[in-house]
Amino acid sequence: MNYNEFLQTLQTQLLLLFPEGSNISIRTLPKNNGISREALIIREPHTNLAPVIYPEDYYSLYVEGTSIDELCTIICDVCMESRLNHPIDASCFTDFDKAKERLIFQIVNYEKNTLRLPDIPHIRYLDLAVIFCCLIPMKNGMDTTTIVHWEHLQLWDTDFETIKKQAFCNTPRLLPPYIQPIADAIHDLITRNPSLNRLLPDSFGQMTSRLYVLTNETQVCGAACMLYPSLLQEFSESLGTDLYILPSSIHEVLLLPTNARDSDERLSALVRAVNSEQIPPGQLLSDSIYYYSREKAALTL
Asked: Which of 1, 56, 182, 235 could hold 5 in an S-S bridge, CB 3.0 to 4.6 Å?
C-alpha cells in the first residue's frame, strides 16, 4: 500500500488497541525552518500526555517487511513507556505562576520561519528571531520544551513584555552557558569513539586551536547563549580581542578571535559550505557570520 493508505490503516488499527474514548488524529506539525512533518496525535482519556508519533518513521519499516500489527505493537509500547516514565504536570504550563519561572528564549532563522512566526511572540534580531518556550519538567528528571504562542498569553492573562523580561532573566539561570575550545570538544568525542581519529586531517591542531564552542550545559538550542547579557563582552575581554561568531547550528555557535586574521569572505564561505553539507535543514541557524565589538559592546552582521 502507498503511504496515505498506510497512514489511514495505521490510524484505524491503533484506535482499536487504545481505551474507549481515545482519539487519534492526523496533523501536519510545523517544525523549524519551514519544515513540517505529518504526525499521529494519540490522546487517551484521563491523561494530560498526548504522544506524537511520526508515521513516516514506521512506513520505512513497513516497506522493509514489518507488518501493520507488529508496528501497532511497537507504537503501543512507545506510548506506554511515555506514560510510565515521562508523565508531566500540566499545571507547569497552564498556571502562569508556575510557567513564568520556566520561560526561556531560543533563536531561529527569521526568513526560514516567516510562515509560523506570526503565531509566535518573537523579536526580530539581525537575521534571527528570538522566540520563547516553556521548560516543562518530567518525573524522570528530564525537561520537555513547548513553544509559546500568542494564544498562551491569553490563557495566562499576561503580555509580551512580561514573558520577554521573564525569559531573559530565566534562561542563563536554567541553561547556563558553556564555552570550550573546539579542540577539547573533539578530543572528548574521540575519547568516546577512537575510530574517529583516523578521519581527522594532519592539520587538525592548527585548524582548531583558535576556535571555541559556545552552547549551554544541555547542548540543546545553545546558540541562544550568544545573547546572554555580558557573556560575549567578558569572553572577548579575557582574550583581548573582538570576536567573529560563526553559526554552527541552533545548538551551538563557534567563537573566533578576530586577531586570527581570517577574511570575512573566507569565513562566510566556510559557514555556507558547512551548512549545506553537514547541518540537517531543521537545525540550520544562519549562513551569516556575526561580529562582536568590545568597544561598542554590540553584535552586528
From this structure: 1
